[in-house]
Amino acid sequence: MEKIAFTPEGAEQVWFYVLEQTKLGGIRYILVTEEEEGDSDAFILKEVSDEKNAESIYEFVEDETELAAVAAVFENLLEDVKLT
After folding, report:
1. Is 17 part of a structural domain of the chain?
2. For residue 44, which of 3, 21, 61, 78 is within the disulfide window of CB 3.0 to 4.6 Å?
3. DSSP letters along 19-64, please?
4. pTM of the entire structure?
């Protein structure tokens, strides 16, 4: 399982495991968790990079409508996962 570093503005670096990724409406989303195994909180991040950046830049999805739509896609991709 791929592990990525995420550094929120003004905060320390956090490592996440990427469970799944998808593209919706031309935007790339990833489903991540802090633990490789077992039950853990999961987060949906969306790519906000532009073509000028060599590195991918992600932010947490906070809009409730967008979050619900992307969570439904991930639930379909990962049959044993329920995102609430």
Report:
1. yes
2. 61
3. EEEEEETTEEEEEEES-SSSS--EEEEEE---TT-SS--EEE---H
4. 0.84
